[in-house]
Amino acid sequence: MFWKYNNASSSQIEAVLAKEDVTLQELMDEEDIINECKLQNKSLMDFLTRPDIIEELVTLTTIEPSAELDERTRFKYSNIACEILTCDVPALNEKLASDENLLSKLYVFLDSEPPLNPLLASFFSKIMGVLIAKKTEQVLDFLKAKENFVSILLKHLGTSAIMDLTLKLMTQVEGVEVRQNILNWLDSQRIMQNLVCLLNPNVDKERHDNVAQLLCDFIKISRDNQRNSTTERSDPDPLLNTLESPETVSLLLDNMLEKDKIESCIVGGIQVLLAILDVNKVSCDEANDVERRQAIVESTTLAVLKRLRDFHMLLLEPPKKAPVTTTVGVLDPPLGNTRLQVTRLFAAVISTNNNEVMKELISLGTLQVLLDLFFAFPWNNFLHTQVQACITSALKGAHIPSETGEDNALYKHLLVNCKLVERILEAWKDNDIQQSEAKGVRQGYMGHLTNIAISIAELCSSSKLGQFLKDNLPEVADSFDNFNENTLQEVKKTREILLGGAHPNTSNEDGDEYGDIPFPQSTLLHQQMYAQYQVHQLTPHFIESYGFNDDDFNDGDDTLQTIDHRTGMNFDLSEGDLVQQHELFKQMCAQNINTLDDADDQIFEDRDHTFQTVIEKQGERHDAVYSSDSDEDDSPPPEDPFMDIDPWSSQNRESESAVAPVTISDPWSTNEKTASEANTGWANFSSPSFANFEANFEPLGSDSGGTASTQSVIETDLKVENIENNDKKNREDNHSAKSSLSNKSIETVAQVVKEVVEEASKEIAAGGDQGNVLPNKAAAQLSKNVNKIEEDSHQLQTGSAVRTIRPEPDQQGI
């Protein structure tokens, strides 16, 4: 229950208990009082175990509230008080059981005259049941001290709650020693004899019904306890032995069959007799148990045998019943429950195959009366079932010798005196005629009549019944043979047809609903494999950890997810898988290299790149990449050759080449400076003084050293295999671009030389050394700028011309 796991105290209860003059009624108005009792709230327990409070609780459960109160809330506090006292709290149980005054206050409730208030009786029964279960010895000692306890219980057995308390006292006391003690004490009080005597016409009907129910339940529970006893010691039940004894059975028959015929006591008594005779359902294989059961059946049957005439007269003269209107007409008199129960008793005693019983039935003509009732009430299938059981049991056990010394006296009685076969044939014929009429209805007994006819036909072929019928009633035998061969066989074939093509599954004690279905062999194999899989998966660790775990509700990012060893995951890769992955990697590399080659060609189509343009293109490419995740694999290669170019190159790249004289956009300032302006030592190749300088140099061919250097840089930078050669068109475009670059380089060198000569002339005019200034300075300037032009050419040919070196900290101001 919920309160077993809720350990939080109720603030409302604590607030009420904190009051100085708190009353029990104020506390019982709180909704959480029952919950707090089950939680054993210490403050609440201290309050409830006060002598005045617990006495008030007992009073509420035993004294009927005023009738002037609203009926909807009249028993509110009585109900809550009962729930508090039955919360199974050790403190409350101990307080009640140890205080004799409180027990006496409870016991006084039984001293009142019947009938008891059923609701208060249920409260009393519930409280006493808990005390008997938890404080058995203390409560039983108190009850034993009361001499009139059993008689008071019997007086109030008309109340169902008192009947339940009596049954608990007789069957549900725990502990072998304590239980045996209370059973012996109850048997000494002759409780069974007193209960049987209550099935008397002079006792009220309510007690008839409750006593019969009490005895039947006691027989069933006691026999189950003896059969299912797990202890080595299994003492006999003295109360059960007393009830099953012939003396008690005879006492029962004497009370229920007095002169006054009261249906309630007769029906109740027959139900108890049937419960005593129903010992074959007890599954005990030991020899002494079998002998004991046979002895019980024989003793009970002999006791009934002495009163068979009385039961037979009940079939002829049952208790008076008023007419009953049914859908098929008025029944006057109706069959009644008395005659139905008497028929059930006859079926039970006939099944015992007791010769004395069969003789008495034959002499009384009981079977003839049963057949008359069978046809007189065509729509009472309860009666038809019991009569069919009587007839078939009698025919199967027909070995009774007659008074003249001849066998088959029962055959003679049923077939000759009762005319069983003739009545079956005549009833069948009448039913056919009635069904052939307009709106004809089949008689209600035809199903059971068919069963009786089939039983007779089977016995005629397997026993002396057939020969007896031919010897004594030859015409009837011929008629029955003709009926069996034509009509009855057709009915049997029709019955054998399976509705839906398969026999419906009946109750199976083994619980295997599909045990008889012929599964194909392949299906059986699959089932076996699946069963093995389940056994393999349901390891003890899995069973113990089955269900939810607190770790299941943790954040997945905060926990380390492990792989269960049962999954058997294999991460080993075969050699073929490695080769396949290696080939796939080379294909991807080749595709990316082709993209870089295309970028090299497109560089020369748009050479006027600045640092700002590179940044803008880089941002556009990033926007395109992150705009959609789904376009990563399906989109074509980018056309922009600068997408993968980092505007901030590494230090290694800076060491390989100097800064190209390209326009730089300062990301930290709006001012722009050229590389030549940033470094004062660099020559201004755009100076007019170098306009005609190219005449002093030969044009560079397309196969200059720059080309070789370019190829070396490409091989060093990429270092991949299987680079496909560019097509013819790309080679022609590269050749044209390289020629243009060479011409531009010549013009730049000439411009440098021209500026150097002009500067030398100015220094000579100022008085410098003409022989040293011009050669040294011109050579230095010319060598420096030629080297930079060659490096610039290499960078342009490898697609690196637009790469910009990130300035060092001391250069960030340029």
Automatic annotation (TrEMBL):
This protein's UniProt keywords: Cell cycle
Pfam families: SAPS (PF04499)
Molecular-function annotations in GO: protein phosphatase binding; protein phosphatase regulator activity
Biased composition (Acidic residues): 629-643
Compositional bias per record (Polar residues), positions renumbered to this chain: 666-676
InterPro entries assigned to the protein according to its UniProt record, in alphabetical order: SAPS
One GO cellular component term: nucleus
Compositional bias of kind Basic and acidic residues: 716-736, 805-814
Location of region: Disordered: 616-676, 716-743, 788-814
UniProt family annotation: Belongs to the SAPS family.
Name this polypeptide is given: Serine/threonine-protein phosphatase 6 regulatory subunit 3
